[in-house]
Amino acid sequence: MASSSRTPRTATAVGGEAQALATRMATLHADAGLTIAMRMPILMRGALGDSHGQREAASAVSEKISAVMESGFAAGQAAVMFWWGVALNPLAAVDFAEAAAKVANSTLEPFSKRTRANAARLTRPGRNR
Predict the structure, then answer these.
(1) 67 Ramachandran zone, left/alpha/beta (phi>0; psi -120 to 50)
(2) What is the per-residue pLDDT across 18-42, written as a single tens digit (0 to 9) for each?
(3) Which of 46, 70, 69 is nearest to 58 (CA)?
(4) How many Å apart are CA 93 and CA 16, to the nearest integer?
(5) Burial of 39 (0-12, 13-18, 19+ CB in 10 A)
(6) What pLDDT, in 10s, does the model give residues 48-100?
(7) 74 CB burial (10 A radius; 0-12, 13-18, 19+)
(8) DSSP string of 27-47?
(9) pLDDT of amino acid 53
C-alpha cells in the first residue's frame, strides 16, 4: 500500500517540475525576444559602420559563445552527478525524469542569467543612443 500512495506523489512531483521547466522556458523566450528587439537598432547602426553597434555585435557573439560553453559544462556536471549517485548507490530508486529536469534546468541557467542582464542593460535610459 505504501508504494501505491507513493506513485501519485511522484507523478505529481514530476509534473510540477515539468511545469516549472516550461514556465522557465517561456520566461526565457520572452526575455530573449525583448533583448533581440532592444539590440536590433544598435546592431543595424553597427552594420552601417557605427562603432558602438559593432562593439554590441561583438559582445552579443561573445556572450552567446560563453553561454553555450557554460551550458555544456553545467549539463555535463549534472549528468555526471546523477550517474555518480547511481554508481555509489545502485539499490536506490532511480528517477530519470527528475535527473532530466535537473540537467535541463542547469543548461538554462547561463542563458537565463545573460538574457536577464542584457534586458536590464538595454532597457536603461540613454543606453541605445
Answers:
(1) alpha
(2) 787 778 778 877 777 777 888 888 8
(3) 46
(4) 19
(5) buried
(6) 988 988 888 888 888 878 888 888 888 888 888 888 888 888 777 777 777 88
(7) middle
(8) HHHHHHHHHHHHHHHHHHHHH
(9) 87
Nearest Cα neighbor of 74 from 110, 20, 115, 116 is: 110
Question: What's the DSSP call for residue 91?
Answer: T
Residue 89 DSSP one-character state: -
Retrieve residue 6's grid coordinates: 507513493
Query: How far apart (Å, rounded) are the C-alpha atoms in residues 3 and 14?
Result: 16
CA–CA separation, 22 and 36 (whole Å): 21
43 within 8 A of 56, measured Cβ to Cβ = yes
Kindly report the pTM of this predicted structure: 0.64
